[in-house]
Amino acid sequence: MSKQNTAQNDTRANADHADIAALPFEKALAELEDIVRQLEQGNVALADSIRIYERGEQLKAHCDALLKQAEARIEKINLGAGNAPAGTSAFDPDG
User: Which compartments does it reside in (predicted)?
Assistant: First the structure.
């Protein structure tokens, strides 16, 4: 594959993933779950598998970032005046 083809594919991939930044967490997670299901079933051509795997990686990163933002907001809410704990613990996603 030439450098020009690689650059074109990278540009196309970036355009394909540009919409991810606008997705709310729930939609991004649902799409990621759909991608995992498709890949687990194994009924996807190799080239398509690679393409949707790459999108899945982008969706995962987006979901991780949104979760970290939510965690930071919850911790901020739990802090009292002067950043002293207000009697609650840091956010624990596992309960």
Answer: Cytoplasm
